[in-house]
Amino acid sequence: MKEIVLKARPREKVGKEYAKKLRRNGFIPAVVYGQGASSLALEIETKSFHALLRRGLGENVLVNLSISDHKDGEKKVLIRETQRDPVKGDIIHVDFHEISLTRKLAIQVPIHLMGTPEGVKEGGILQHVLRELEVECLPTAIPEKIEVDVNHLKIGDSIHVSDLRLEDVEILSDPHSSIVSVVPPTVFKEPEAAPVAAEEEPEVITEKKEEEEEEKEKEKEEKKETKAEKKPAEGGKEEQKKDQK
Predict the structure, then answer these.
(1) How far apart are CA 183 and CA 38, in angstroms?
(2) Please, what are the domains in the chain?
């Protein structure tokens, strides 16, 4: 584990107004907790702390806090919390936790995946499930990150917590938890179009209409024939009447 030195000095005053003044002058208010002693209010240089963060160092870095004009001189600490302005995003306060180099502590360590799985090259999808691992170890043995090689994973393969082997570190996370897996690609099938009954109905209706029209034509023809038959018969009756006269 890397150890860095960060300079600090005791804070002369506390309160919002003094904190604002510190920030204007290029300092960040800070406080140190832990080891059974009362908390210690400090101020640290804004540039120095930002440089620490830019190097990708955060909560898992052992910080040698060098305190000027203080009886202890230095403290071994971890960064516990950084508070930011909700609007500007600037760091407005830092909490440090003092630790003992001879006492183990539990801490969350980020997991970094290394490589490209074979299954992904074949069309599979990589699922990174667990992104932090809880471990217990001495402060000097805390890893900055836990690297997991995923090159060999094929579709359907996965890596669990129980598959990891770490030196000088006890893993506290559930051994059955999945860290990463490669799953088959998702295939979306287009739904088959259902037969549209409405397309057939017009044909049926048309056939019925044609049949009805044919029947009407037949009825008309029959009526015409009936009328034609009646006319000769009526003419014969008239001739009979004339003969009688």
Answers:
(1) 52
(2) 3-98 (2.40.240.10), 105-183 (2.170.120.20)
